[in-house]
Amino acid sequence: MDGNTRFRNRTDAGRKLARALYPYKDQHPIVLALLRGGVPVAAEVASALGCPLDIVLVRKIGAPIQPELAVGAVVDGGDPIVVHNPEVERLTHTTPEQFQSLCEVELKEIERRRKRFLGNRTPLDPKGRVVIVIDDGIATGATMRAALRALRMRKPAKLVLAVPVASTEALQDLHDEVDDIVFLTNLEPFGGVGCFYTDFRQLADEDVSDVLARFGLAPGNDPSVAETTRQ
Prior knowledge:
Layout: H1 10-21, E1 30-34, H2 38-49, E2 53-56, E3 58-62, E4 70-75, E5 81-84, H3 86-91, H4 96-118, E6 130-134, H5 142-152, E7 158-167, H6 168-174, E8 180-187, H7 205-214, H8 223-230
């Protein structure tokens, strides 16, 4: 697809992305979504490929004076993985103290989301699996980079990044983090992910929970049981 491609909504984007990912169907992948916007996209891919779905708990760290700009990101885990974006830190004059303070705020939000979406269940184990990581789009790539680095440490057999739309620069920056990248459209200069969607409304926790429930992923449920029922 070209830079003029638009999607009706995240569901439409997910269905189109699923077609591009169909060659992975026989490799029995797992699909991991970034909250919140990546979940409905990933759900369509998981449904089409007949594979399990789960989430990655990662949060962008926004600049103090321009929160829409990512100075870094943090990923959930025993030892949270923090990724810096030095260029944006410099441009926004973000001090180390400010960065740390913002990081702590996002870690608290990750903890809230863990309780909300996972409860006491253990996420799917990516070790030895083909893992497809999905979001609804990528602008700077800081959030996705953090997620990919955290997942790489868990030793997947193959790590695949898949998005409907991304900036050309972000895809180039993420190239070395993964084994494959699948995307439908990219553009530079990049006006923002929402520019490629007719409906790009913000999703609520309830929207995410409804999608996860379709895959048997209510908090406390064992995702390995849900996976078995889909095979």
